[in-house]
Design goal:
Blueprint: E1 42-45, E2 52-54, E3 64-66, E4 69-70, H1 94-98, E5 99-102, H2 106-115, E6 124-126, H3 137-140, H4 142-153, E7 157-161, H5 170-178, E8 182-187, H6 193-199, H7 206-218, E9 223-230, H8 239-249, E10 253-258, H9 265-276, H10 281-290, H11 309-326
Parallel strand pairs: 1-5, 3-6, 6-7, 7-8, 8-9, 9-10
Antiparallel strand pairs: 2-3, 4-5
Helix pairs in contact: 2-4, 7-8, 8-11
Amino acid sequence: MRTLPIRGRGAADNPANRFVPIELVPDPEAALDAEDPGVKTRFFEDSTRSIISTNDSPDVGFDASVNPYRGCEVGCIYCYARTFHEYLGFSTGLDFETRILVKKDAPELLRAELASPRWKPQVIALSGATDPYQPVERALRLTRGCLEVLAEARNPVQVVTKRDLVVRDIDLLGGLSAIGAASVHVSVTTLDQGLQRVMEPRGAAPYRRIEAIRRLAAGGVSVGVNVAPVIPGLTDHEVPSILEAAREAGAMTATYILLRLPFGIRELFDSWLEMHLPDRRDRVMGRVRETRGGRLYDPRFAVRGRGVGEYAAQIHSMFRVTAGRLGYETAPPPLSAESFRAPRSGAQLGLFDGV
């Protein structure tokens, strides 16, 4: 495993893909730096012909989601979505951050699916896996295009992001919120900017996330904070301060998720700790095991997001008591699909037409 970090990236190498028997091993004499093509981001067209994904997980607060991008430049080292990249033939490491599949027809595909008589109006999450406002969204505007379709159809949408680019779309989100059809959840893992820079290298700085909550609330958008993930032994002590900062900014709801380390993510995270926080590595991994019954991961529904044992119970109690003291709503109000109307169907101008 690589021993030196790469600026602007969460992972520092590419672990082998568990589904691919052939592994590319780079020349150990070759320097891996900012000029190396393996570190530069490359974008590939995703030719999928459907855009709405469904799930039946009892741990997820939505049944349908739209992901305009597969892979994510935000580069959160702990991201469970890294494992999905292996199904595309890539690695959970640098590949996840530097090989991004772009669904360039996402808005047109969404329009077609919402216009179909088979569509049953329901909440759509943007997005269920990777960040819908990752850096390339500023140029491609695919998330913006999907929101425009959702706003036209008045279909309820739930947005989850670590990027303050979401405030660009206050006009659409505010209009949907006015009819009870939109909410935004800003994920805040830490208020320590130094830690955030190496853990979530292309996420917005913590103060910018709090400011995004403030601007969304001022714009009439229903907004909450996700204290996620809570990392035992590293960020759990910040839960009260994150809740206080977000509440002061206007967040009305709050949730938390305990760190999840499925499959190869546990090795990536352990290597990251060894590289950036070697003096805290044993403590953090020990605390993770303490909240997972002695293991690093427990995949059971209802347990994987909360953990087990006394330490996990302490985190839950601290969150619950603080959220109650600050006046957070105990549960977000359900989003409404009552105002849904099928969007106009028909051919639309393609994203790259005329370019």
